[in-house]
């Protein structure tokens, strides 16, 4: 299939970027977006030209590394799939694809389609962990968690931190990401010990780096892990709970 691509080219964080047009006459519908970029890069290398930089790792939809935007939509046309799982079968012969980095003030461009998503890491550093006493590991059945609670916690723990939710939000909010972490940890016994402190610190960091929630729900529409939109509600719930409790738990 023949495709016309406009791919973002930017030499560095302080350099001005531009779109570069590439004609691809031999794309295969089974290719993923990343494999399409591989194909383009192979041709550029053969011509002695610089390939496009983009991020990827596992290419199995579980690492969250492959963040980019296709025709204005994070990852691509299909709902709830990362870029490495987006196939060209979703497009037609002669289509025009504009491929660029995830766009957000919180994501400065490093090069081409590679962006710095460390703002998400800073949110996690504030409370995305549990503190336990070192020593002999407890028996597996010491801490009881019922099946429904474990399943709900795991549903929210599935977030891969790709950052597409931020790029999809017109306000650049990371409420789906942060809410998923808060719900996951509050539901498990070890995570409850620091619940209030975690909420205060993570939400403060969230609001320092990201915008307010738009309330539109675009974030859940592009989330590869299928994190439910209800995770966003955890931000205000945990904020109010932490404010009302006098114990600094």
TrEMBL record:
InterPro entries: 2Fe-2S_ferredoxin-like_sf, 2Fe-2S_ferredoxin-type, 2Fe2S_fd_BS, 4Fe4S_Fe-S-bd, 4Fe4S_Fe_S_CS, Beta-grasp_dom_sf, Helical_ferredxn, SDH/FRD_Iron-Sulfur. Keywords: 2Fe-2S, 3Fe-4S, 4Fe-4S, Iron, Iron-sulfur, Metal-binding, Oxidoreductase, Tricarboxylic acid cycle. Its cofactor is [2Fe-2S] cluster; [4Fe-4S] cluster; [3Fe-4S] cluster. The keyword 4Fe-4S applies. GO terms for biological process: respiratory electron transport chain; tricarboxylic acid cycle. The keyword Iron applies. It catalyses: a quinone + succinate = fumarate + a quinol. It comes from the Bacteria. Its EC number is 1.3.5.1. GO terms for molecular function: 2 iron, 2 sulfur cluster binding; 3 iron, 4 sulfur cluster binding; 4 iron, 4 sulfur cluster binding; electron transfer activity; metal ion binding; succinate dehydrogenase (quinone) activity. It is an enzyme of class 1 (oxidoreductase). Binds 1 [2Fe-2S] cluster. Belongs to the succinate dehydrogenase/fumarate reductase iron-sulfur protein family. This is Succinate dehydrogenase iron-sulfur subunit. It comes from Corynebacterium poyangense. The lineage of its organism: Bacteria, Bacillati, Actinomycetota, Actinomycetes, Mycobacteriales.
């Amino acid at each position: 299939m023949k495709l016309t691509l406009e791919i973002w080219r930017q030499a560095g964080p302080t350099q001005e970027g531009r779109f570069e047009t590439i004609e691809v006459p031999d794309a295969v519908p089974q290719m993923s977006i990343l494999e399409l970029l591989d194909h383009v890069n192979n041709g550029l290398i053969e011509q002695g030209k610089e390939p496009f930089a983009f991020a990827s790792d596992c290419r199995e939809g579980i690492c969250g590394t492959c963040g980019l935007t296709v025709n204005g939509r994070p990852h691509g046309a299909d709902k709830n799939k990362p870029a490495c799982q987006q196939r060209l079968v979703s497009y037609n012969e002669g289509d025009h694809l504009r491929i660029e980095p995830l766009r957000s003030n919180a994501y400065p461009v490093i090069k081409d389609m590679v962006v710095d998503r460390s703002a998400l890491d800073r949110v996690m550093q504030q409370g995305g962990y549990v503190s336990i006493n070192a020593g002999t590991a407890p028996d597996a059945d010491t801490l009881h968690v019922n099946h429904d609670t474990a399943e709900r916690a795991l549903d929210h723990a599935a977030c891969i931190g790709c950052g597409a939710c931020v790029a999809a939000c017109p306000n650049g909010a990371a409420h789906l990401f942060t809410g998923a972490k808060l719900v996951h940890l509050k539901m498990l016994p070890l995570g409850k010990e620091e619940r209030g402190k975690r909420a205060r610190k993570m939400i403060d960091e969230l609001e320092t780096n990201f915008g307010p929630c738009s309330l539109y729900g675009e974030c859940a529409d592009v989330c590869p892990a299928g994190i439910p939109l209800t995770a966003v509600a955890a931000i205000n719930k945990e904020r109010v709970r932490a404010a009302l409790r006098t114990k600094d738990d």
